[in-house]
Design brief:
By secondary structure, this protein is of the alpha/beta class. It is built from 10 helices and 13 strands. An 8-stranded parallel sheet has the order 3-4-5-9-10-11-12-13. Strands 6-8-7 form a 3-stranded antiparallel sheet, with no helix packed on it. A two-stranded antiparallel sheet has the order 1-2. Helix 4 packs parallel to helix 6 and helix 6 packs parallel to helix 8. The radius of gyration is 25 Å and the shape is globular.
Length: 323
């Protein structure tokens, strides 16, 4: 009798467990809980839904003292801004500010130079002027407070790039906009082998992407500005790795103030390679407002799809301009 009661109790517990599982499943269906993933045309996290790179049709580029309220109201979908209003930790943008832009449907990338150091940024040490680290090179004569760096030096990653990326990811940016990629060309003209310099830049960008994505625990976009010749100058293996790594690429002065027609044609051919690999492409021109209409016609007639942005001719990037 005791054995029969035990078996009966076990059957009852099993039936109750089956009923409870069915109840949870049916409740989820009844309540309209969707099991479908977010559309592929959107990037979704628990706190934000913003456009995916391939869906972007407009962008804004504002580095010096960007106004978040003005950017939130702007029609542009993609925002490229500095992680700090002036490069200092004291004026870096909080996660609340970046989330505020997300709430207005913006995809937000943080500007980050990987081939130069700036003396106004948080990582700069006062004694570097007299006792510079081994990675620090000469000052850029065209941009005061900007110094070329030996970007392949591990100390450049450890002292500068790691804490820089930690701040960017902690603030909730969707990715990075990497500048001074063409720094590899500078070193090729100062004693370094061209392919080795290009390989080292490709390695740095891949490392940057991998490190940032490990911090973000998910999708983190990488856009490179200029220096697209790295795809031809690097070894085939590193060129392929770099192409797989990046999501977007940007160029400056493709249609106005360019170096030569030959250089323009070369850069257009590189942009076509990137487009064939599914990359979103951006262009910024530093021109007067009255050239906007002409600029848009050039964009429409270009052999590759480019997302345009017109910035002020002084190249200060300290205000919001237009297409």
């Amino acid at each position: 009798m005791h054995s029969q009661q035990k078996k009966s109790a076990e059957r009852t517990q099993l039936l109750l467990w089956i009923v409870s599982v069915l109840f949870v499943f049916l409740s989820g269906c009844d309540a309209g809980v969707s099991t479908k993933p977010a559309p592929s045309s959107m990037i979704q996290t628990p706190s934000k839904i913003v456009p995916a790179p391939l869906d972007i049709t407009s962008w804004a580029y504002w580095l010096s003292n960007p106004d978040a309220a003005q950017l939130a109201k702007a029609p542009q979908q993609l925002i490229v801004m500095d992680y700090s209003a002036d490069g200092s930790d004291e004026r870096r943008f909080s996660r609340d500010v970046v989330d505020y832009l997300h709430d207005h449907g913006k995809l937000v990338l943080s500007y980050m130079p990987v081939g130069e150091a700036n003396s106004f940024r948080f990582y700069w040490k006062p004694d570097w002027a007299k006792n510079p680290p081994a990675f620090l090179g000469p000052e850029n004569p065209e941009w005061p407070e900007a110094y070329k760096v030996r970007y392949w030096d591990p100390a450049w990653r450890d002292i500068v790039l790691k804490p820089y990326l930690q701040r960017i990811v902690a603030a909730g940016f969707d990715g990075v906009y990497l500048d001074i990629v063409d720094g590899y060309w500078f070193w090729s003209e100062h004693g370094e082998d061209l392919q080795q310099a290009a390989d080292r830049m490709a390695q740095l960008i891949v490392w940057t992407a991998d490190y940032a994505r490990s911090l973000a625990h998910g999708r983190f976009l990488v856009c490179i500005q200029n220096g697209l010749g790295v795809f031809n100058d690097a070894s085939p293996a590193w060129s392929r790795k770099l192409m797989r790594t990046i999501d977007m690429a940007a160029v400056e002065s493709l249609f106005y103030n360019y170096y030569s027609e030959e250089d323009q044609a070369y850069r257009l051919s590189l942009l076509q390679q990137l487009a064939q690999n599914g990359k979103t492409l951006l262009d910024v021109e530093y021109i007067a407002p009255e050239l906007s209409g002409q600029y848009l016609k050039k964009i429409q007639n270009a052999p590759v799809r480019l997302i345009p942005y017109r910035a002020a001719p002084d190249r200060a990037l300290d205000s919001l301009a237009g297409p």
